[in-house]
Design goal:
CATH architecture of one domain: 3-Layer(aba) Sandwich
Distance between the termini: 40 Å
Strand content: 15-25%
Oligomer: single chain
Number of strands: 13
Number of helices: 12
Helix content: 40-55%
Largest sheet: 7 strands, parallel
CATH topology of one domain: Rossmann fold
Length: 316
């Protein structure tokens, strides 16, 4: 059995995945450039447990750099690439779309081409529920149209799926595209709503709440996402698209209320107009993942918030 390369392995989802793979006895290579989107020292702490394991190797480099990707693939045979490295975030992508195209598309092409040349058979692409746009039909199914993205970030994720399909069609690369729905849990990125709001509620700062609070997100606990990735990697045989979501949307106001209750604080709400690029709701139809991956979300929103807040208090 070859090693697994995880791009973006020092990030939120990636570091949890790396620990899971190592615990299963896999050899793991992480390619990460420790981008300053949030502090590099936070990401290095994410990898502290993994770095102590004998099956772990870190390559510091950018996924857009062919030399760094070759280094990550060359020390030992790699049979699976799990591509999680990306410039993330809907709102920042509107401010700097060229950077998102560079990282999310150029980087994906460099990685796909390196897989082709190295003969890596399996490629798992971390996609996003954002590809569905402001879809009025819920829940979102993998067969729904995804040709109307409403942010540059969403457009790059859909384009990444298409590039991966092209490499499957032309070169026989086995591909899975996993559409993640609003992942949360310990180590969540500090810019994401649950983490950002928890900090502000805990410190008594006003919460900038865009819209009337009725928008909904299908929150998915990170351990469930990791389970889905592991199952997809082992069952990728052709070209697949799978939703990985909690399948129980929670409104923005309800999420804030649950955080406030868990922190024992009263939130200070600063209502603002809706922001461009945001969608009204996300909601995953996970019937295909249930059927083909024997996967289902196990950690509900309330339990996940409790686990997140336990970590939040310890890391504050």
């Amino acid at each position: 059995m070859g090693a697994t390369l995880v791009t973006g392995g020092a990030g939120f989802i990636g570091s949890h995945l790396v620990e899971r793979l190592l615990a299963e006895g896999r050899r793991v290579v992480v390619l990460d450039n420790f981008d300053p989107f949030y502090p590099a020292e936070v990401k290095r702490r994410h990898l502290a447990l993994a770095a102590a394991q004998p099956g772990f190797r870190l390559v510091e480099g950018d996924v857009r750099d062919p030399a760094a990707v070759r280094e990550a693939l060359s020390a030992e045979p790699v049979d699976t690439v799990i591509h999680l490295a990306a410039r993330a975030g809907v709102r920042p992508s509107i401010e700097d779309p060229a950077l998102y195209v560079s990282v999310n598309l150029d980087g994906t092409v460099v990685l796909l081409e390196a897989c082709r040349k190295a003969g890596v058979p399996t490629f798992v692409f971390g996609s996003s529920s954002s590809v569905y746009g402001d879809n009025p039909k819920v829940p979102f199914s993998e067969d729904d149209p995804v040709d109307h993205p409403v942010s540059p970030y969403a457009a790059t994720k859909r384009a990444g799926e298409l590039l991966a399909h092209t490499y499957h069609h032309l070169f026989g690369l086995r591909v899975s595209c996993l559409r993640f729905f609003t992942v949360f849990g310990p180590r969540q990125r500090p810019d994401l709503a649950i983490h950002a709001f928890a900090r502000k509620i805990a410190s008594g700062e006003p919460l900038p709440v865009f819209g009337d609070g009725t928008s909904g997100r299908d929150y998915t606990y990170v351990d469930d996402i990791v389970e889905g990735i592991v199952r997809a990697a082992s069952r990728t045989t052709a070209f697949h698209v799978w939703n990985l979501g909690g399948s129980h949307p929670v409104t923005l106001d309800a999420m804030i209320g649950r955080l406030a209750q868990g922190l024992g604080k009263t939130p200070v709400i600063d209502r603002r107009p809706p922001q461009p690029g945001d969608v009204q709701r996300t909601w995953a139809d996970v019937s295909r993942a249930r059927r083909e991956l024997d996967w289902a979300p196990r950690v509900g929103f309330d339990e996940g918030i409790d686990r997140f807040l336990d970590w939040f208090r310890r890391s504050a």
